[in-house]
Structure formats: structure tokens, C-alpha cells
Amino acid sequence: MTGLRERKKQRTRDALVRVAHELFVTHGYEETTVDEITEAVDVSQRTFFRYFAGKEAVAFAVQDEVESRFYDAVVARPPGESPARALRNALNSTWASMGEAIQDVVPIGLHMRMWQVIETTPALVAVHMRRSTEMEDQLAAVLAVREGLDPHTDLRPRVLVATFSGVMRTAGRQWGSGEDLTLEGARQVMDHCLDLMGPVLSDDWSSCAGE
Amino acid sequence: MTGLRERKKQRTRDALVRVAHELFVTHGYEETTVDEITEAVDVSQRTFFRYFAGKEAVAFAVQDEVESRFYDAVVARPPGESPARALRNALNSTWASMGEAIQDVVPIGLHMRMWQVIETTPALVAVHMRRSTEMEDQLAAVLAVREGLDPHTDLRPRVLVATFSGVMRTAGRQWGSGEDLTLEGARQVMDHCLDLMGPVLSDDWSSCAGE
DNA sequence: AGGTTAGTGTCAGCTTCTGTCAATTGACAA
DNA sequence: TTGTCAATTGACAGAAGCTGACACTAACCT
Questions:
Q1: Considering only residues 136 to 175 of chain A, which have any Cβ-Cβ distance to chain B shorter than 8 Å?
Q2: Where do the domains of chain A lie, and which CATH numbers do they carry?
């Protein structure tokens, strides 16, 4: 909370995120131009690109916050847990503060609808996936350090993280396509999918319920 | 193999793919403009966009072929196998014909280097991921039919496919960053990663070797 | 108060991609 | 062979995303 300059900067940034989200949600991502966003906020187009690396970046401003919290939670897990447990526990502890973290940037309802926009817009799906892989790299590195492994030769951390990440994305899509667009609903779907992860790989496919 | 018209069309398409791959590999993807490709093939820029939906599409022309073969192999698996086995067996049977399938479009060495370009170019990584999810959807649908499940309520097919897909992408990246850039090398890395998939989820992390 | 600097606007330009229309060329029947 | 039709292409114009350069304003510091 320093000078006026930084506060102003924060305000224009917030305004850009807010307005962009509203336009994306109401008109669609592809249909919204950067010029429309900047006109609504009354800044130049050039300024927009000084705040965000691209039109896509502003769509993931909230996601950035959430993911960084999850990452921190993983780092904070005690070393006694198995890697798989550490990931799940970190996820659980993240759910608690997630609501407020989102609300700090945009209303939660808006973020929910933005999530659906992301999941249904091919260009944004692509970016979402790329971001996931980047997060996977970081998580795999953390797990490798936890277990004292060489990340270049031992692929176990990466494989574990990749499966987790894949399941979480599946859960995210399932949730976005459903009715219950609450955080609690998302949590339930995700837990359910993670419970399925182990049994589903076995040959006795039916050892777990599908629904 | 019908009229002259179709042959001509195929030739320009092949030329575009070939030239694009060579330029991407030598100069990099971002550094290569569509104009450079079309000038080398001597067609108008407009023609390029009639053959490919975008600059990215031409980079995945070969991948398209390979993935569709894998899909067909999954569909062709006998119903007796568990879903997880069906995926692995389909993968095994795909490796055989993969080499020729690639060679039909571009030299294999070129495709290998193109793979590395894809893995190291953020924009292409993003597209690659999006394509993976689309393939996942199709595979999940196939598995759901195989097992007679309702794909909307039973998430097991999707979860299984998501884990598989994640592991295969991990393997692909590991292979691309290594030394042995042969198809056989890729196959080995992928098999290894898939073997890790089950044990890695358990709490006795060390029940499998890392290397 | 005055110099410094971060932040912004303006402008000019590049690249990807699309719509449109006229011209060309292969296909096919008379 | 010739004429007609449809498919393919090229040329042009233009929108949208994005970047570099430069000047200007306003906050900051002494």
C-alpha cells in the first residue's frame, strides 16, 4: 500500500480484468475485441498490452491467483506424506481460501461463468492446457526435491503430476458442463474423479462405482 | 487417385506441409511467416488458408495422421480387454505402422525435429494440448460404448483416458528432450512411463524403480 | 521547486486471418 | 472439338492482435 502511482496502476488493472470478464461472459471471447475492452475502461489499446501479454492473459488473471495458491500449498506439505497424498491434501487445503482469493479480483459468479467460457472456447482451452503443463513442471520439480530424486532421470514425479493434472482438468470440464456452478460443487466433482483415478487403471474395472 | 485436379491439389498441399516443416525446423515456428511459406511454394497466401485453418494447422499435419491411426486401433480392439489394456494394446499395434504413415507425408527425421519444435514453442504446445483433449473426448466416448456406460454420468472412461493422455504427453516431452530421437526410443520412453502410472499413485512410492 | 522516472497516449507498422470477386483451369457432356 | 459448369486460385481490401519508437504527463524524490 505505497504511493498513489501504484494504486492507480492497480485500479486500471482491476478495471481491465473486470470489464474484460464481463464482456467475455456476455458477448463471448472471440467476439470481444481488445479495443472494446479498452474503450470501456477508457485507456489506450497500447496500455492494455502493457498490462497483459495478450488478450488471453486477461482471461486467466483469476486462475493465476488460484493456481499459485495451490502451488504454495503443495510446497507447504510436511515431508512425511507420500507425493500422491501431498497433492490431494494440498488441494483440500486450497479449497478453503479459494473463494476469497477469487472474490478479491472479480465476483465469484462472474468467475464461474468465465470458467465456462474458457472451457468452451478452443483458443482458451489451448492456453489453459499450456498453463497446466507449466504448472505440472513446477509441481514435478517440487515433488522431486521432496523425495530427493533427480528430476531428469526419474520420471515418477512427472508421471504422477501428469495423471493428477489430467484428472483435475477432466473434473473441471465435467463441472463446467453441469448445473451446480458453485465452488462446493466443483470440489465434489474433483474429489470424485480423484477417487476414481486408482481403481480405473486396474483390470477389474468395476471395483469402483461410476457415479 | 482420380482426376488431375485432385492430384494437383494433393501436390500443393504436400508442398505446403513439406516447406512449412523445413522452415519451422530451420528458422523456428514464430520466426517463419505464412508469406515465406507461400512464396517458397509459389502460391498466394489466400491459398494457404484455404488448405489449412491457420498457421498452426500445417504444423500438425503429420500428427493428425498418427493420431487417427491410434484412434482406429482403439476402436478395433476386441471387447474382452479391460479399457486400460485396450488402450495399451492399441498403442502397441500403432507403433508398427507409424513409421510408414509418417514417411508418406514428410521424411521421418524432419518429423522428429518438428516434434521438438512443437514441444519447445509455447503457441504450439498450447495447440497440441487442445488437440489432446479433443482426442480424449473421442476415446472416452469409444470406451463408454465398449463398456456400455452412459458417458454423461459415468466419469470412469474420461478419467482413464485423461490419465493415459497425460502420461503419454509426459513421455513425449521426455523423449523430445533426450538424445535418442528414433521411433524406437519414443516407444521405450512411453512404455516406461505407462508402467510407472499404476505404482506411482500408491502410497508405497518406491515399489517401482524410477529409471 | 525542479529534476527524475514511471506510466500513458499516439502513431506507424507487421502478421495472421477473412470476405469478396474476377480469372483461370480441370471435368464432362453434346 | 467445343461449350458449359464447378472447383480452385489470385488479387485486393480490411479487421484484429500485437510491437516498437517517441513524446508527454503526472507522480515521486531531494
A1: 136, 147, 149, 153-156, 158-160, 162-163, 165-167, 169-171, 174
A2: 4-57 (1.10.10.60), 60-207 (1.10.357.10)
